[in-house]
Amino acid sequence: MGKRADRNKTPRPKCSSRSLLSNVMRTELFTICIANVGLKEQMEPKAQTLKKSKKLELYPRPKTENKPSEHSFHKTLNPAFTSLNHPMAELKLSESRDLTRIERIGAHSHIRGLGLDSSLEPRDVSEGMVGQAQARKAAGVILQMIKDGKIAGRAILLAGQPGTGKTAIAMGMAKSLGLETPFSMLSGSEIFSLEMSKTEALMQAFRKSIGVRIKEETEIIEGEVVEIQIDRPAVSGAASKTGKLTLKTTDMETVYDLGAKMIEALGKEKVQSGDVIAIDKVSGKITKLGRSFSRSRDYDAMGPQTKFVQCPDGELQKRKEVVHCVTLHEIDVINSRTQGFLALFTGDTGEIRAEVREQIDTKVAEWREEGKAEIVPGVLFIDEVHMLDIECFSFLNRALENEMAPILVVATNRGITSIRGTNYKSPHGIPIDLLDRLLIITTEPYSEDEIRKILDIRCQEEDVEMSEDAKQLLTKIGHETSLRYAIHLITASALNCQKRKGMVVEVQDITRVYSLFLDVRRSTQYLMEYQKEYMFNEASIVDGEDADAMHD
């Protein structure tokens, strides 16, 4: 303990004036000694004398370009000490700003699954889902069949009133499927574009929802780095850099010769001795697996990103099976034209010819027979499906019968309405022949108790503290108007609470924003009262009973 305490005390440096006048480097070192000890008053006259001297510059600025130098002593010391006129005992540390992570909160960002137990029974409140027990149970049965691979080329319709959780159930299915099962989501109005036809947009959406799991065996070199030796040429422009890499496992140790590209890759990954790395022999890709447990005591403090792993055992060179998960659409885009993989990043895929897709399907079928590939049927969710026209519906009839078709989930809030593109009426705006292929799941309106639980979850998601009376009032508003309107008032009331320097949202905040923002019922009433004041009013003057019927 005594030795540690003595370490904290700064020793008094022994510097002479002769060593100070020797060269610039020693002058800087002496300045640091002065700053550490705090001998400002004693050495200030000497410093002024040195500044006036023409033979010696305290901080000469090099005229060369700002290139990083390995042995630059000025770069290490000069940023802390700009001149001797500064207070020497004060060291200016770089100010670090805390960057606030901005997270966008969406309408369904609180949903993490369907909220089912192991026997597919829905819990009351789980994974962000509340209510809709029958619909969630039906979706859970479909989900289990998708995971087991027993269902493909089927279609499910989620039908219900607006604000009853149809999209929430689809999002819960997407979260429960996991990352390996592809899930595509689009609205019924997204497929109408001037750049490509409607059927091409639907076909691309179908191909995005079909995954291919490709198995591949590769040779890798996996071990712990013992030493890295890099020989740099003495003259610039001479031969390229060469080096040696020593790797070891628990059983053996080997030295590998390195070329310029491997040296560059090692520098890019910041590999040093003690790291456990894996090198792909085919591509030359270096993967940093972590740091060896034997080097865990090299540093007193390390960042949270540091991961410690065991030193590999056995041979250095191993054969490893790598599984790549891609979608059929990605394979289509890459093979559609030269440098087609760039279109995956730009999004400018354009129309893909049918011949390209046929060749890819043939190749994937060959891989399946050889055991190299496996088809993963995903889920395609089309919201507002009543916006599709009769041509799109006829395309869906044919596409669902394909052997490599995904699970199609569609949602609509329409009753008996006309099919787009025709004069015929049909349930949900969908032709009868397609309705016959659909398994229909209905959703029911939420009760007042369920609305209260949903508002509790949303307050927690949006980080808003609300009193019980305010939640009760907001629940009543949501039950009388709509759930979406009540959810929108949460953030608005929180901002009003901040304005009055409050910590908890009270009833007065809810009342304030309720008077500022109208719901559909009050807005309709306002339009009926002042319809003569508006231009191009097409609604006829109705009596009180008709107005009430419209509100309902």
UniProtKB/TrEMBL annotation:
GO BP terms, alphabetized: DNA repair
GO molecular function, one term: DNA helicase activity
EC number: 3.6.4.12
One Pfam family per UniProt: TIP49_C
Superkingdom of this protein's organism: Eukaryota
Keyword entries, A-Z: ATP-binding, DNA damage, DNA repair, Helicase, Hydrolase, Nucleotide-binding, Nucleus, Transcription, Transcription regulation
Cross-referenced InterPro entries: AAA+_ATPase, P-loop_NTPase, RuvB-like, RuvB-like_C, RuvBL1/2_DNA/RNA_bd_dom, TIP49_P-loop
SMART domains: AAA
Protein name: RuvB-like helicase
UniProt lineage: Eukaryota, Viridiplantae, Streptophyta, Embryophyta, Tracheophyta
